[in-house]
Amino acid sequence: MTRAVFTREDADTRRQALIEATAASLAEAGIAGTSVRAICMRAGVSAGLLRHYFDGVDALIAETYRATTATVGEAHAAAVAAAGADPRARLIAYVTASFRPPVADPALLATWLAFWSLVKTDAAIAAIHADTYRGYRGELEGLLSSCGLEQAQCRSAAIALTALVDGLWLELTLDPTTFTAEQASAMAVRWLDSLLEGNSLD
Amino acid sequence: MTRAVFTREDADTRRQALIEATAASLAEAGIAGTSVRAICMRAGVSAGLLRHYFDGVDALIAETYRATTATVGEAHAAAVAAAGADPRARLIAYVTASFRPPVADPALLATWLAFWSLVKTDAAIAAIHADTYRGYRGELEGLLSSCGLEQAQCRSAAIALTALVDGLWLELTLDPTTFTAEQASAMAVRWLDSLLEGNSLD
DNA sequence: CTCCTTGTTATACACTTGTAAAATTAACCC
DNA sequence: GGGTTAATTTTACAAGTGTATAACAAGGAG
After folding, report:
1. Is residue B140 part of a domain?
2. How many domains is chain A partitioned into structurally?
3. Does residue A83 have a pLDDT over 70?
4. Do B170 and A163 touch, CB atoms closer than 8 A?
5. Nearest to A156 among B129, B187, B195 (CB)
6. Using only C-alpha atoms, what is the Rg of chain B?
7. Which one of A46, A85, A103, B188 has the largest count of C-beta atoms within 10 Å of its C-beta?
8. DSSP B5
9. Which residue on chain A is closest to B156 by alpha carbon?
């Protein structure tokens, strides 16, 4: 009975490997198929190591949620930054990025659904969710405000736009046969234009 | 060791009791907490009975999905029917019903999320989902057409409206502190009005 | 080269999982 | 009443669950 050989890794490396394995497992097998052993096997690590880096499997899942939302936020931010200075172009870039990889990814959908399903039962997940969506809406409010939308309407518009994009993203990634990413972008942009109509930049 | 007393029930009664118990369990404990024993205890029945009426726990969950989507469809249909003959009122009734019980119910959210998370891995669930959403969009297309919207735009508008309503419903039931049901209705109605603008009934 | 720290594995444990098969008994027919 | 049927419960089982703990060994310090 020979023991498995192993290498000692940096703490951050191991933590990130476990987080990535958790996301991959949630994406591929759902929350039901994501166990301590499944995660650790995917990370190439024995099951016992999980508790050495996290308080438990629930804590690891919460941490994975935090990391995933951060990745999505960065993808959006990068798209906006690449769009240049024109406010409308920046807003459109933000929306369009939601329907392209890495955001519109079936793996991300599965991961996201797993998190949503924990919001009511897991207080830590609920807190992360509230924070994350507050951040998303805040960013959109800023973009809308830059487009000349009245300040009083920005909050409500950000909520509605978030909802529209979320709904399109959801159906697009759940069942890509109904409509395409391009159609989704076009619908969101049309909504945006009718919203900004009559609210010029000065 | 005395056996539990029991009464023989009609097959439909037992099936519906198990379906309702499944929905309740999904709502309260999530997919992870919904086991054969949890479902059957909730239905007041021993665990072995599940297999007597369903092919297994997965089949029962699929059946619960079918029943749940039917309930939501009926709630929408009832709201539309109660709205009278005016096309715009009917459309608004459809949308508003999405943000009120029994549609905007945290229990329903949990059930729905559990089903969505099975769409990619379970072919039966995927088929039910595709059918259901085709039906929802078809109904909306009819309502939009009655409002005088050009036929060519109806399909795209139905997709976008479904997405907006889904997104608002999702966030409203996930975290009711961000905005109210009335605000959600108002946002959807505003979108509708700007869409129908210039498309009178002639 | 040896010691020591600690990252890592292996094992054990009590519990839950879904399902199969047998044992029971309620309800209906005669 | 007795007999029959099948709905229901009970038990059993192999596999999987999360986690605690002990055993090990990798890699640096001296």
Report:
1. yes
2. 1
3. yes
4. yes
5. B187
6. 20
7. B188
8. P
9. A187
CA dihedral A190, A134, B104, B62 (to 10 degrees): 90
Distance CA A58, CA B148 (A): 51
pLDDT of residue B200: 43
Identify whether A159 is part of a domain.
Answer: yes
Secondary structure of chain B: what % helix, strand, coil (to 5)?
70, 0, 30
The share of chain A scoring above pLDDT 70, in percent, equals: 97
Distance in angstroms (rounded) separating the CA atoms of residues B10 and A73: 53
Residue at shortest CA–C1' distance from C18: B36
Report, in angstroms and rounded to the nearest whole number, the Rg of chain A calculated over CA atoms. 20
Structural domain including B162 reads 62-196
Q: Which nucleotide is nearest to A3 (CA to C1')?
A: C9
How much of chain B, in percent, has pLDDT values that exceed 90?
69
Which of B85, B79, B84, B83 is closest to B101 using CA atoms?
B79
Q: Do the Cβ atoms of B105 and B173 come closer than 8 Å?
A: yes
**Binary contact (A162, B166; C-beta < 8 A):** no
- Would you say residue B42 lies in a domain? no
CATH of the domain at B163: 1.10.357.10
Q: Which region among A111-120, A166-175, B174-183 has the lowest average model confidence (pLDDT)?
A: A111-120
- What CA–CA distance (Å, rounded) separates B14 from A36? 36
**CA A173 to centroid of chain Cα atoms:** 13
Q: Cis ω on the peptide bond leading into residue B102 (within 30° of 0)?
A: yes
